[in-house]
Write a structure and sequence with these properties.
The protein has 635 residues and is an all-alpha fold. It contains 30 helices and no strands. 71% of the residues lie in helices and 0% in strands.
Length: 635
């Protein structure tokens, strides 16, 4: 601990020295310099351990009074109190923040439903043949569980209790074990439904719906990069991640499955079908065979239903817009006179004749009516379906081929793993997809989807027999406590930002940045480096609420999309949990680790995953379509 303490103190001393050196003499201090002083002091006080929210409020009020001090004490006090009330009321009326307590409550319910143990065991067996299978299963389990909860501390702690003993027993290195658990636990910061994205959306005024849609693929990309890194390490250095033994990969089969496997076939579909014939099923009830067949065919049934629904959508004819207008001359006036064209020939018009070579009026229309065109055919048969695009048939063919291969190697051991996934992975995945799908496709607002997710958490806890009054009370208490912290942070940051802008600190920073004559790329690199460095002493909440209002006004000048900037920031801010000395996930893991695992080993295990995060940021910036394609398609 001594090295970490000295490192933190050295950063603190460096900030104080920078303030002393860069600040002008007291005689030359302007309001703008006071704003910069306030910004430096807030970092120092947070590092000293003062409560962030109330420190922000206190400094904001104190420096607001200093900004108005020239108007006299009475007016300065009135203006300061007015600013406090107005900024607090603005936060209270921000309806985006309603989703925060609901998502947090959903996370605590899922955490207490005791799903993570089943999820890790089933993932461990499902990934058994991959290099570094235990570490891969850990990252995937962390990703799913972090997505469902969004609570980094809970995910890292639970996975430290479950995965670390298993990985250490299997001979995995401490560094790889610690890095996989801490990096995987932080994925909930990026992957929706993320509280960070809600907070950024409220600060930046960006649609949370678009942020969720944009963050999905970058979060998935980061998880896959973690998995690829682990597999490469396991291939290059088998000592760091030795393969599992046959005993550890063995799956215990139920008695009926052993009977069918030994007497008929080890593959599920032929074995069950064979057991249904003649007298071979004498020792296996037909209800068991039917249940097994239904469970085995679930992937095929789901794929068939999905493709049928997709076919129905892609072949649906375009809706015919009925303008409500009636063609002139197409109705009768209740007499024998019919109006063709709406005009009657005047009397005495019989002497008039068409010019030579001209057709009588209406001849073209009659010809068109006798030979219907494609448009007329659509009008005649509005129920006719469109042809399915080639992409649909290619997807269908590839899916059918994959299903054929899947069932060709679908043994009873894989069936048991699939059943374990059905009881652990798929309920969580279904709840996550329901919440995200309802937000992304516009069926519900984030607040409504969060309420639905909270209800889903209650249903999961009830289904796993974990729902009781003490558990519910604890979840409500923790959700209220965390939500209060976030909301007070918003109030404090709102007052602080208003004071900072009032003093002119924002204008000084803007003039300084614009005076550097940076290109958009250079500005983006500068902003991300600053955020990366801020992640060392500060947590993501403090960075979002304190420093994002400084960067956001500059985005318009450099023509940077706030949505894209938010995705880069969300990817970058995971360093707040992975970078010393305030790498909170390291301390969470240290608290549940064996005594011989040191904090330095955990920090060393984090470093490669921090490098992967930097690679992911570069990839996202180089190929912005990774984050912007889905919002553009949907909206």
């Amino acid at each position: 601990m001594r090295k970490e303490i000295w490192f933190g103190l050295s950063i603190l001393v460096a900030v104080v020295i920078a303030l002393i050196v860069l600040m002008p003499s007291p005689a030359d201090l302007t309001n703008g310099h006071l704003g910069l002083l306030m910004l430096g002091l807030i970092v120092v006080t947070i590092m000293l351990g003062f409560p962030t929210a109330f420190t922000l409020m206190g400094m904001g009020v104190m420096f607001t009074y200093m900004a108005y001090r020239g108007m006299g004490p009475q007016i300065a006090i009135e203006q300061t109190l007015d600013l406090m009330v107005l900024r607090t009321y603005a936060v209270m009326t921000n309806d985006v923040l309603i989703a925060v307590p609901l998502f947090i409550f959903m996370g605590y319910l899922v955490e207490r439903a005791n799903l993570v143990e089943r999820l890790f065991k089933s993932m461990h067996l499902a990934m058994a043949r991959l290099p570094g299978s235990l570490a891969v299963a850990t990252v995937i389990t962390c990703a799913v569980f972090a997505t469902a909860t969004g609570i980094v501390g809970a995910v890292v702690t639970l996975m430290g209790l479950l995965a670390m003993p298993a990985m250490m027993k299997a001979g995995y290195s401490v560094r790889l074990t610690a890095g996989a658990i801490t990096a995987g636990g932080c994925l909930g910061i990026m992957i929706p439904p993320s509280v960070l994205l809600i907070v950024y959306g409220a600060v930046a005024g960006v649609s949370v719906v678009k942020l969720y849609a944009g963050a999905f693929f970058p979060g998935l990309m980061l998880a896959l990069l973690y998995v690829f890194y682990i597999m490469i390490v396991a291939k290059i250095s088998p000592k760091s991640a030795p393969p599992l033994s046959e005993e550890e990969r063995r799956v215990t089969l139920p008695e009926f499955a052993e009977t069918i496997k030994n007497s008929i076939s080890n593959r599920v579909i032929p074995g069950v079908l064979g057991a249904m014939k003649g007298r071979r099923n004498v020792n296996v009830p037909m209800s068991t065979l039917l249940y097994t067949m239904v469970v085995a065919l679930l992937p095929a049934l789901v794929f068939t239903a999905a493709m049928a629904l997709t076919y129905n959508i892609v072949t649906e004819p375009d809706p015919v817009q009925d303008s409500g207008l009636v063609e002139m001359g197409s109705f009768s006036m209740g007499s024998e006179t019919q109006f063709s064209g709406g005009l009657a020939e005047p009397e005495g018009s019989a002497g008039l004749s068409e010019p030579l070579g001209a057709q009588p009026m209406g001849a073209d229309a009659a010809a068109d009516a006798s030979e219907p065109t494609a448009a007329n055919a659509a009008e005649v048969d509005p129920e006719a379906r469109l042809a399915a695009p080639m992409a649909f048939w290619i997807t269908l063919l590839i899916g059918a081929a994959l299903l054929f291969i899947y069932y060709a190697f679908f043994t009873f051991a894989r069936l048991e793993i699939f059943k374990m996934l059905l009881s652990s992975f798929f309920p969580l995945a279904l709840m996550i997809l329901a919440v995200l799908g309802s937000i992304v496709f516009g069926f519900a607002t984030p607040s409504e989807a969060a309420a639905m997710g909270s209800f889903g958490g209650l249903v999961l806890a009830l289904a796993y027999r974990r729902l009781n009054l003490p558990m519910l009370k604890e979840s409500v208490y923790l959700a209220a406590k965390t939500s209060a912290m976030v909301c007070w942070l918003f109030v404090g940051s709102s007052i602080f930002s208003a004071a900072f802008a009032l003093l002119g600190g924002q204008a000084i920073i803007n003039d300084w940045v614009l005076g550097m004559d940076l290109t958009p790329v250079e500005f983006m690199i500068l902003a991300q480096v600053v955020i990366f460095l801020l992640g060392w002493p500060l947590e993501w909440t403090e960075i979002i609420v304190i420093f994002m209002p400084i960067f956001l006004p500059l985005l318009a000048h450099y023509q940077i999309d706030p949505l894209f900037f938010g995705l880069l920031v969300a990817l970058n801010l995971q360093t707040a949990f992975l970078s010393p000395p305030v790498a909170m996930s390291a301390f969470y893991l240290k608290g549940v680790s064996p005594p011989h695992v040191t904090l330095n080993q955990i920090f060393a295990g984090m470093l490669p995953f921090m490098g992967i995060q930097i690679i992911a940021i570069v990839l996202l910036y180089t190929f912005p379509g990774i984050g912007l394609w889905l919002p553009e398609v949907l909206y």
